[in-house]
Design a protein that fits this description.
The protein is an alpha/beta fold and 685 residues long. Helices cover 38% and strands 18% of the residues. It has five domains: 65 residues, Orthogonal Bundle (DNA polymerase, domain 1); 98 residues, Beta Barrel (OB fold (Dihydrolipoamide Acetyltransferase, E2P)); 100 residues, no CATH class; 189 residues, Rossmann fold, CATH 3.40.50.300; 157 residues, Rossmann fold. α13 links the parallel β13 and β14. The two termini are 40 Å apart.
Amino acid sequence: MGMGLHTKLDTFPGIGPARARALGKLGLYTVEDLLSYFPRNYEDRSLRPDILSAGEDELVCFRALVTEGFRTSRIRQGMELTRGKVADDTAQVIITFFNQPYMAGQLRYGEEYIFCGRLQGQGPRRQLTNPYVEPLGAGRLAGGIIPVYPLTAGVSQTLLGGLIRRALPGAEEIPEVLPPEILGRYQLAQAEFSYRNIHFPESWEALALARHRLIFEELLCLSLGLALLRSRRSRGKAPAFHALDLTTFSKGLPFQLTGAQSRAVEELAGDLARGEPMNRLLQGDVGSGKTVVAAAGAYLAFQNGFQSALMAPTELLARQHLITMEGLLASNGLRVDLLVGSMTVVEKRRVRERLAAGEIDLLVGTHALVSQGVEFSRLGLVITDEQHRFGVRQRAALSAKGGEMGTPHVLVMSATPIPRTLALMIYGELDLSVLDELPPGRTPVATYIMGEDKRQRLYRFIRKQAQAGRQTYIVCPTVEEGDLLELKAAEEYGRDLQENVFPDLQTAVLHGRMKGREKEAVMAAFLRGEIAVLVSTTVIEVGVDVPNATLMVIENAERFGLSQLHQLRGRVGRGSEASYCILVTESKGETARERLRALAATNDGFLIAEEDLRLRGPGDFFGSRQHGLPQLQIASLAGDMRVLSQAQEAAKVLLEEDPILEAPRHSPLRDKVWHLFEESRDSFS
């Protein structure tokens, strides 16, 4: 079969529609996809010189002769044993297979085979159960370093390994994307060698060379893509704000800005005065006062005769921002208004007319802000709340509303703490403001870990909170937002609480399969205090302030990432009353308990983020591509910092020579960068 990188896998022998669908779940459709699907681990199946020298319960491979024929016997209904003996010059091994009677016909007396498994027992008579077996000289999956791949239902290691081995000749077609000078300067292996040895290494040394080269390549593409996006932003024109007196704004606040807020406002003002589009990430823990910094930006825009827009992920959150912004800005003469999908046609038309006439200074809303017919007269600042809820295109569509005024400045607010080193690497020092202190008066949330045996005690505590007029969140995990079985479990749990545990309290359920209007109605009722206990999936992770909610109960807490647990905990402790977070878990695993203890020990989101990065890697922060960081296949931002530093250095040299990688010799590398940053592909030129 003629095979190239674009050969479809369903043309391979033995790959019918069902297997093709299963492979598709792993994103595998072509030979190129297969070659770029890297192992998650490796097993050492190097052949041992003799059986006797192998350690007990150690994964080993050895060559042995069948010295006693294999026979099958039924020991009870549904259980068959196939047993025989093999030996080399040093020891004998009793081999047992459970429910594999066909092995009796495959292992012939007097012939040699390779066996892989974990040997039990000591001395000359040892035992091995359900080993991997292949004929001598087959050279399939024994006798070396064997890849272990991430799998899905219908795809086994044997199937995937066999397919990749068949696809391996296609590695000759993989283009060399790294220029010769980079290969030489950083002593990197060639592409074909790396792709062959990442899958079927010739030796541990060859595997190390292959991994190093592919990690470097991925981090170089990441560094180049981020640098290109940043340079594209700086090439644009934006209004320069020159009247930057915040005295009146500060005097009108009912509190004093924290040091971190004052620093963030200064950084923001510096950006706004430059005449280049600001693209600043305002990162702060839950309750750190990001909205006040955003309000200062809107005030500076107003002073310079420009309008601002604030886009929130839900109508309820948009309405809450409207109330907050009016409280912070109306006394200074700013006209604040709202635009959301549930408004009537007449209401929307009135807002659009006032906006186009310049009679609105700050428009707060949802994605309705980017709908057709919404025209600003002088848009100078765009603020988005919780950027991972918005796609790149939605933010770009709002920025495009700047029209003749040029590109508006952009401020992105995020309550997801990212470790400082990681954030600085991704966003660049000038693009990051961190609010790392809480305003005075915020009471830390007391956090406790609880086992299932304390369930009745927990219910008594929930009732006690309700009797005091307080409200409780109970969060159930979902394997994937919208997973039907999990949501059904949440609904049944809510029903059980209402009917059997708290029949006298008003309970409600909130989950991702509900329509937007239904979710908004439930949250609005909770905000009004009409619901005492809200059973929810993680849809409340980013939500409205409910100062009266003082208790957060998280079921199966070990199934959440630390940063996500911290976000959920941040839903309570918003008022003046003492607040609590109860982490319910039955897990006895030390790693899981260590993570939960780390959360209980501190309320500092940045410390928690560092710990989450150490324990779980960066996926918890950047699992969503909306954060602007693509999915990495082999590199780890936590573990490969030294290689990252080299890759950034190489990216800087490359872009000094060829600022947008337009030289023909850089086109394979540019294509690779585009592929990594698919959503932002149209932004590099």
